[in-house]
């Protein structure tokens, strides 16, 4: 018997075929067009649905499709009506005991100053007395000791030095290293320095080598691509300086492969294949077996939209074309069973997205849902600003503090963060088909233009839904074309 209601499904087409993503089971099912259209219909009853589909189907065909849907609901437990409630914070993830001894990563804003003026970096265009500010020994000492005291039971412990450019404040780097060493934790806490690599003098490289610090180097590709965006304050390109110092690191560090990683930002003109070829050659020239760890992201450039438009025209169309070609290449290689022959940029762009779909839960949706993509603020990561304030993450789009080095983490402020995020997103989440796949978190909070409250832009939700549909299509297409093409995901792991 056909029942009215909004079903926990999302209907989409791929290459002419119809599919239904069932939220309850977290699975995708092939469907006939008539069944798919019935599931996504807002018709109030059977007669209304027959009328809605009368131009394409007879009443008997509609009744047959409805019978199939009812049978699937009864026998497989799918195609349920929406009935979930808002849970809010996860009781396991937000366990207060984790704040006592299981913190995982401290991120220190060593300085807000930088010797570069990268075109896509928002800080390039900011002015004010706090824009070029160094962190100080008092703040760093308090933060590092607080982290050490509250991470004793954490399996992986790391301190990241962030900027700006950390090597502009070498004293901060030395202070962190000294404290960790004095407390006998040099072998237990990884120190990672995010750097543009232009200030790696022989002295700084020697310090990195002697202490055993890890470096994440920003490098966007070959010189003609890298220097389009990553430039010194005077406008000169930085590629030659970076590569010169990377070569020095390779010569000085016996475990270079495990100590150095790369952060790649892809910006207009979005030459993905050229960047991939470049890193293949770079790793070969460095004598690296396989590939180094890489993070690859697309630049957020809305703040310089006019600049890029003037230079490249419709750069968004260029991005779509480049991304489509990159996707087609990745799919083609996987279908041929040649995933291992893909270059590092392609793997970094697509492996993680596929893996997220591959490992998704197949358990029925819980009765209560909420902030499934939010980490426990201050546990997974604690960010300390140059003026000693604690934030959940360096990626927060709004200065949302959860404590400071003087008083430590404030659980009251953390409660307020959960409350504000929940109020901003709850109603949308409870009616969204992508609730089980969504990766929006606290970093999507923005301050309202009138300064009264916070919100999550609807555009972010729309972008996320579109992205998740594309990921489902991506995964589905590969699986159907060649089921074995996804076998590599069994051995892929992401932190």
Structure description:
- By secondary structure, the protein is α/β, with parallel strands linked by helices.
- Among the domains are: 9-83; 98-358, TIM Barrel, CATH 3.20.20.70.
- Helices cover 40% and strands 14% of the residues.
- It has a ten-stranded mixed sheet.
- Helix 1 (33-40) packs across helix 3, helix 5 (137-149) packs parallel to helix 6 and helix 14 crosses helix 16 (458-481).
- The longest helix is centred in the last third of the chain and has 24 residues, at 458-481.
- 33% of the residues are buried.
- The model has no long low-confidence stretch (mean pLDDT 92).
Major sheet characteristics: 10 strands, mixed
Report the strand count: 17
Strand content bin: 5-15%
Determine the number of helices (DSSP H or I, runs of at least 4 residues). 16
Level of helix content? 40-55%
Task: Note the overall shape.
Answer: globular
Q: What class, by secondary structure content?
A: alpha/beta
Q: What are the segments in which pLDDT stays under 50 over at least 5 consecutive residues?
A: none
**Any idea what the CATH superfamily of the domain at 98-358 is called?**
Aldolase class I
Please compute the radius of gyration using only Cα atoms.
25 Å
N-to-C terminal Cα separation, in Å? 47 Å
Strand order of the largest sheet: 10-9-8-7-6-5-12-13-14-15
CATH architecture designation of the domain at 98-358: Alpha-Beta Barrel
Averaging pLDDT over every residue, what do you get? 92
In the CATH hierarchy, the third-tier topology of the domain at 98-358 is known as: TIM Barrel
CATH first level of the domain at 98-358 = Alpha Beta
């Amino acid at each position: 018997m056909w029942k009215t209601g909004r079903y926990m499904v999302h209907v989409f087409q791929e290459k002419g075929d119809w599919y239904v993503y069932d939220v309850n089971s977290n699975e995708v099912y092939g469907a006939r067009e008539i069944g798919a259209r019935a599931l996504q219909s807002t018709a109030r009853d059977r007669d209304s649905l027959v009328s809605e589909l009368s131009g394409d189907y007879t009443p008997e065909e509609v009744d047959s499709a409805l019978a199939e849907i009812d049978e699937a609901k009864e026998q497989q437990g799918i195609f349920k009506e929406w009935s979930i409630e808002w849970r809010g914070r996860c009781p396991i993830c937000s366990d207060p005991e984790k704040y006592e001894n299981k913190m995982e990563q401290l991120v220190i804003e060593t300085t807000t100053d930088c010797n570069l003026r990268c075109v896509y970096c928002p800080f390039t265009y900011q002015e004010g007395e706090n824009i070029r500010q160094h962190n100080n020994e008092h703040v760093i000492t308090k933060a590092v000791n607080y982290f050490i005291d509250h991470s004793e039971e954490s399996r992986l412990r790391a301190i990241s030095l962030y900027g700006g450019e950390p090597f502009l404040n070498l004293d901060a780097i030395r202070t962190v290293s000294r404290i960790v060493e004095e407390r006998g934790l040099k072998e237990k806490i990884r120190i990672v320095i995010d750097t543009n690599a232009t200030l790696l003098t022989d002295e700084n490289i020697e310090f990195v080598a002697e202490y055993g610090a890890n470096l994440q180097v920003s490098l966007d590709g070959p010189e003609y691509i890298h220097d389009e965006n990553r430039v010194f304050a005077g406008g000169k390109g930085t590629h030659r300086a970076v590569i010169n110092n990377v070569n020095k690191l390779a010569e000085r560090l016996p475990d270079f492969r495990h100590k150095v990683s790369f952060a790649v930002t892809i910006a207009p003109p979005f030459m993905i294949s050229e960047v991939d070829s470049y890193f293949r050659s770079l790793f070969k020239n460095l004598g690296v077996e396989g590939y180094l760890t890489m993070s690859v992201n697309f630049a957020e450039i809305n703040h310089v939209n006019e600049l890029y438009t003037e230079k490249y025209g419709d750069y968004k169309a260029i991005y779509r074309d480049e991304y489509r070609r990159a996707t087609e290449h990745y799919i083609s290689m996987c279908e041929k069973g040649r995933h291992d022959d893909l270059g590092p940029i392609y793997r970094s762009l697509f492996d993680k997205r596929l893996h997220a779909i591959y490992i998704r839960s197949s358990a029925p949706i819980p009765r209560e849902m909420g902030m499934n993509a939010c980490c426990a603020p201050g546990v997974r990561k604690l960010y300390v600003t140059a003026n000693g304030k604690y934030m959940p993450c360096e990626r927060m789009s709004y200065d949302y503090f959860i404590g400071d080095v003087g008083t430590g983490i404030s659980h009251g402020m953390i409660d307020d963060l959960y409350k504000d995020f929940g109020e901003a997103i709850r109603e949308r989440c409870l009616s969204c088909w992508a609730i089980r796949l969504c990766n929006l978190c606290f970093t999507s909070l923005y301050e309202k233009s009138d300064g009264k409250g916070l919100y999550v832009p609807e555009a972010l939700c729309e972008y996320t839904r579109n992205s998740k549909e594309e990921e489902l299509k991506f995964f589905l297409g590969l699986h159907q074309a060649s089921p074995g093409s996804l076998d590599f995901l069994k051995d892929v792991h992401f932190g």
